Amino acid sequence: MNHNPSPHAPAQAQKHLQAGMQAIKARQWPNAVRSLSQAAHLAPADTLVWMQLARVHVQSGEPELALPAAQRAYALEPRNALACLLLTECFTQQHRYAEAAEVFASLAADVARDRDFLVAHAVTLLFADRAAESIPLFLRALSMKMDDAPTHYRMGLAFKRMNRENEAAICFRTAIALDKEGEVRAQTLPLLLMASRQACDWQHLEEDTAALLRCIDEAPARIVANIEPFALLAVPAGAQRQRRLGEVYLHERVGNAVPLPRPGARPPGRIRVGYLSNDLYSHATSQLIAELLERRDTGRFEVFLYCHSKHDGSDIQRRIRAASDHYVDVTPMTHTAIAQRMRADAIDIAIDLKGYTQGTRFTLLAERPAAVQVSFLGYPGTTGAKFLDYVIGDPVVTPLDHAAHFSERIAQMPASYQPNDSRRPLPPSPGRAAVGLPDDAVVMCCFNQSYKLSPAMLDLWSRILSDAPRAVLWMLSWNAHGQRNLLQELQKRGIPPSRVFFSPRLPPDEHIARLRCADLFLDTWPCNAHTTASEALWAGVPVLTVPGETFASRVAASLVSACGLPQLACADDDAYVRQAITLANDGPALRALKEHLDDHRLQLPLFDIAAYAESYHRLLERMFERHRAGLPPEHLAAEPAPAALR
Fold first, then answer.
1. Cα 251 to Cα 525: distance, rounded to the nearest angstrom
2. Distance set, CA 393 to CA 102, 263, 363, 412 (Å)
3. If you compute the radius of gyration of the chain from its CA atoms, what whole number of angstroms results?
């Protein structure tokens, strides 16, 4: 951008503009805003003045204040590509991607666009859920510089958003090959691994996994900090490496965050609990937490939802919104603005429901808006965050002797950490013929996403199927490449395609109905079925698993234990295979497990939401009582379930 004073501004405006430019160089943002505002008042038709004023607000983290100035600049010069780009930046910093995309589209087609402009436009479309439209723009940008690693990486993200995992993997591998500095490589390796695993293309699985772990262990912190911690959940990385990656990742991003000033005296009244999430719509998190929020104890707690979810108008979204005292849409707000709003609301306990999952904004809690800050439900592992005091778990998923794996203090629920919705529908089975399954088979299913599968899991399943001749395997078809590759991999292990069945994804109610056609759910590790497992148990399908050392690898063991079936958490791979074969060949034993789930469904601790809600509220009170007593956070072992509710 040209920083020379505009010749069109009056002399006095020129003086203020020059002063504003000097203040910008000195990073004296308030002085810059004052001078440039004066210049804009004196020269309201000067595009440069408005652009500079907008830029100052953007650089000082105030995109909402930058927006009017950027709109004025673009209105003055609607063919100015830089003014267009600045206006879109104001929108994207407020997460208003659809509006930013409209601004990009408004620039006349004959105005020249450089590579950076094309990439910015493409990325905006990607975040506006218009990934398919971004691909031609990425390709145009690459035609100007074919060896640009970041653009290949971003195009891979677009293909991934379109569930075209094979094309995504090609883009990611190209970005890695072109990267000279290492930052793009670190950022891309986990995505390459994820895309390859989603497509069940395991040709380079071992070498890609080794490269990722080597990067985490050996690369400088500034490089390692480009790796999203979520990438390690399905990788045999170990709990300590997960913690270390989270700590490095956050240190590079919020290590210098300044906590908000200490609050004054707490206002009297109920404990104020604020939930932060963008999954408060038709999403697994909402399906799990809806009734817990509905059962909030309004005499003890005042509940705030700080939501940046999409608005899908679903029944579950309406339930979630109704199950709070205050619903705050924070979508367009900056991290700091959200933290300040939480502080102004005098939140006592802030509960993040996201961790490192897509769309997270949990790093705003580094500004310490609440007295007690908690990780719950959304992310199955430690965040590595010093600013989170507790992680809610249970004796199985987070045993206290695993405390070294967590940066947070462990706060245990008495049964499972996972809440469930007793109002979740339980439709009748459609019958096996309706879903294409044989009536006389033992149906072993796994509806986990395909990135959780591995050659080692297929080795175990093939052993089971070989010794259980009446058994068939039933899975979801996540993508065409994955389905084709899984059939080929199973065939290599002696399992013909005739014993493997795939079904499409369905809405939750229809999925639970068809689940009732299954006999046994075969879990995966190191990343288990989570909501998928509790759906199976709700439908009366036993889940067989092997717990490991990480949170994500112990979830299914927690769930089956909370259903009174701890024997389904096997000691090791061989025990898993033996148990599956035994159940497949012993009809009465398998029926007994299914009948146990069906006959006692609402009395099982996993689905007894009344007992869960009381234990959960008591756990929150224990956290806050420590704070109010001036005590630091400490591990909170599970208390027995309330006697009246046991």
1. 29
2. 44, 29, 21, 5
3. 27
Summarize pLDDT for 575-610 with one digit per residue, the tens. 999 999 999 999 999 999 999 999 999 999 999 999
CB atoms within 10 A of CB 531: 18
Measured distance CA(390)–CA(408) in Å, rounded? 5
55-81 residue pLDDT tens: 999 998 899 999 999 999 999 999 999
- 622-635: burial string, b at 16+ Cβ within 10 Å, e else: ebbebbeeeeebee
pTM > 0.90: yes or no: yes
Two tokens, residue 245: 């990656």
Give the list of residues 6+ apart from residue 325 with CB closer than 8 angstroms, or none: 298, 302, 303, 304
Nearest CA to 523 among 461, 593, 587, 455?
Answer: 461
Q: Are 106 and 84 in contact (CB under 8 A)?
A: yes
Under 8 Å CB-to-CB from 172, ≥6 apart: which residues?
A: 152, 153, 156, 188, 191, 192, 195
Pairing of β 271-277 and β 349-352: parallel
The DSSP secondary-structure symbol of 610 reads H
Coil, strand or helix: which one is 562? Answer: coil
Mean pLDDT of the chain: 95
Residue with token string 């910015």? 120
d(CA 523, CA 400): 24
SS3 (DSSP) at 409: strand
What would the pLDDT profile of 314-331 be if each residue is shown by its tens digit? 999 999 999 999 999 999
Residue type, 500: V
DSSP labels for 439-474?
Answer: TTSEEEEE-S-GGG--HHHHHHHHHHHHH-TTEEEE
Alpha carbon distance 146, 569 (integer Å) = 51
